[in-house]
Amino acid sequence: MTSQAPPDIIELDAEQLESLLQRLEARELAPEDFLTLIATLKSYAHVTQLIDQKSTSIARLRKMLFGASTEKTAAVTGRDPEPAATNPDDAAVSAEPAEPPEPSAPPEPKAKPKGHGRNGAQDYPGARRVAVPHESLTLGDACPACDSGTLYRQLQAGILLRFTGQPPVQVTIYELEKLRCGLCGELFTAAPPEAAAQDKYDASVASMIGLLKYGNGLPFHRLDGLQENLGMPLPSSTQWEVVDAASRLLEPAYDELLRQAAQGDVLHNDDTTIKILELIGGRAKTAVIDAADPVGPDRTGLFTSGVVATCDGKRIALFFSGRKHAGENLRDVLLLRATDLPPPIQMSDALSRNQPSGLQTIMANCLAHARRQFVDVTPSFPAECRQVLEAFEVVYQTDLEARKKQLPADKRLRLHQERSEPVMKDLREWLDLQVTERLVEPNSGLGAAITYLRRHWEKLTLFLRVAGAPLDNNICERALKKAILHRKNALFFKTRNGAAVGDLFLSLIHTCELNGANPFAYLTELQRHASEVATAPGAWMPWNYRERLECQAAAA
Which of 96, 397, 525, 533 is deepest in the core (most CB within 10 A)? Predict the structure, then answer.
C-alpha cells in the first residue's frame, strides 16, 4: 500500500485487496486497515467531486490523477509507428525445423551512436578559462625525446573540467588597516581597493536575484534561507530593495523591447491568472487608479498576459500583470506601432478577450487548441478522431520540414498549399458530412470538437493563405510557463509595483532565452552601462549588446 499527499491515492494489488475484503467481512480489521479505508473514502469523495464538475471530463480526470501522457498521433490513436510488412509470402511459416544456416561473413559492426551523453568544453561558454603552460617546455624548444625535432603548439589544447560550488551571492569583507599616532592621535586608514570603493551591491547581485526569482521561480524567502545556511545572510527585504533599484536602470531596455515588439510581423498573445494583494478584496476599492491601470475595481479578475512578437527574425517576450486581459495589453503594444506598417498577424486562441479592440490585425487561431479537443475524446471516438488527428499530422510534418530546410515565408506557404491544403480540404468535407448527415451527436464531446473546428476554420487555417502565419500559439504558452512557475512558488505579488518589476525582469530574461543570450550577463551589463543604455537603448538589445561591448573594448 502506498499513500500520497492529498488527494490520497491508495494503490492496492489484487492480493492486498482480497485480504482486506476478507478481514472486513470477518470484522477482524487491523489498525492499519482503518487508515487505508479512511484514505480510500477521502480519495473517493475527492474524485466524485471532480466528476461532478461540468468542466472535468474523464480524460482530464485521468490526466489529473496519473499525469498527462504524450499527445503524439501514434500514441493517441494506437497506431503502429511503422506498419509491418504485408507480403503474403512472409505469412507462410513452415512447420518443419529450419536447416542450420550456411556460414556467412560476420555482421557489420553497429554504427557508433552520436555523442556520449556528456557535455564538451564548447558547451560551457560562460566558464572561466585558465591557460596552463607546460611546466618545463616552451614553443620552439628541441624535442627531449628525439633531440632533433622542434616543438610547436597544437591547435587543440588538452581539456580538463573542474566544477566548484559557491553561494548564489557572495560577500567579501575588506579589513582596512588603521594606524594611530601615539603622540598626536592622528588616525590613518588604508585606502580601499577599487572594487570595494564602488557600490555595496555589485550589479551582478541584482542580476542573480532577479534571475533566480523571476526566471527560475526561487522566492526571496528561499534564497534568504539558502544564504543564511551558507553563512552569507541576504534578507528578503534587502533582495527586494536591490532588484527594485535595478529595475529603474533596466527600464530603458524594456521600453525599447516594447517599441520593437510593436513593429513585429507576428504577435502571439494569451494570459494566465495571477494574484496581486493590493488589487484583491477591500484593498482593491481603495487602490488608486492610474493611467497604467485604467480598469476599474469592478473587474475582479487578475491576469498575467504574455505577448511574444517576431520582428526581423528576432523574438521578443513581454509580460503584463494586472486587471487587463491579453487583448487589452496587446492593444497597448500595438498603439506604439508605426502607422505606415500593414496590420500584423495575431495568433491566439479563440477567446474574444484576446483580441485588441479598435485595432486591425490578421487573426489566426491556435491549431493545437482544436487538436487537443479531439485528443481528449479519442478513447470514446477512436475512428473519428483518428481521421482528424492524422490530417493534423500531415500539417505539422510539413511545417517541420519547412523549419528544417529554413524556408522563407513565401516558400513555406507554397509547401503547405501543395501538401497540407488537399488534406485539410478533405477534412473539411468530412466534418461537414458528420453534421449534415447527423452522424455525430452535437452535444457529445466529438460534436463539440467538430463544432469548434468548423466555427473557427478560417482562422485555424490561415497558414494556408497568408505567408508567415503560424500554426499554433505554443510559443506564448511556453512563455507563460515562466509566470506560472513564479506563481506556483511565490504565490502572489504584494503590490502593483512589485508586479511591474516582475514583468520587467521576466520580459528581459525570457527574451534573452529566446535569442540565445546569457540573461545573467545581459542584465549585469545593462546596469553597468546604464547611462549609455538610456541614451541609445536600441544598441543594447540581447542580440547586439555584445557588439557594443566589443566596440568599446577596441576603442579603449
Answer: 533
